[in-house]
Amino acid sequence: MKIEDFFPKEGEKPLETLKEGGGMCSILRTVACIGDSLSSGEHESFEMGEKGYHDYFDYSWGQFMARDAGITVHNMSRGGMTAKDFDIFARENGFFDDKYKANAYIIALGVNDVSRIIAGELEMGDLSDIDPAEWAHNKPTFAGYYARIIAKFQDASPEAKFFLMTIPDSETDEKRAALYKKHRELLYDMAKLFKNCYVLDFYKYAPVYDKKFKEMFFLGGHMNAAGYRLTALMTETYIDWIIRNNYQDFARVAFMNKRYHNA
Description:
263 residues; two-stranded antiparallel sheet; 8 helices; 35% helix; 16% strand; alpha/beta
């Protein structure tokens, strides 16, 4: 064993070496995955000329992480989910209740929101749409709805860590590609605005989801089992990299949601 293997390495990129077993991600004993179909292990069926969409949570990247890292992962996701719709969905399922308190929340929302922006049904917005003192006053934009999710879970679990996932780069039209970049910029702004927030920058560091990638890891418009497994490896590897580069930020995770503290 070399203790240096656990030190941050100068110039190391977040996804330079994929980790089996979760690495330091495993210190986060409970994790909540907030997202849409791509967080739900959704698979597309195709029979008699008809498509079907099925959320198979056991194949979600969150549950692959749970098995790999030996942690508990709550799927707070559903096919078609948007930041706007999440609040009602979460309240209907009791996700703000104490039994769902987590050490970390991974938010992977934006693909469906971008589609609504393109359709003229929603605006991306920016930090000016957010009221840090009262989330209920946020404006009805993607920025306002997304910030509300962070704020409400920070109310429920004040010491939890938040990992905001950007949308991976892909072969798409110029309008959507530009919105994916704006989405990425907004998440970096959010990470500065809220405490305990970090960006999982898949747009920059994940492979480009090009034709070759999709031939291997997609089944129709959604991932196949191998694609969700790969996403789990990338997510836990990125979180491991964040922890190894910010050990002091994570020194007290064992006290999260406990009656004792270490000030």
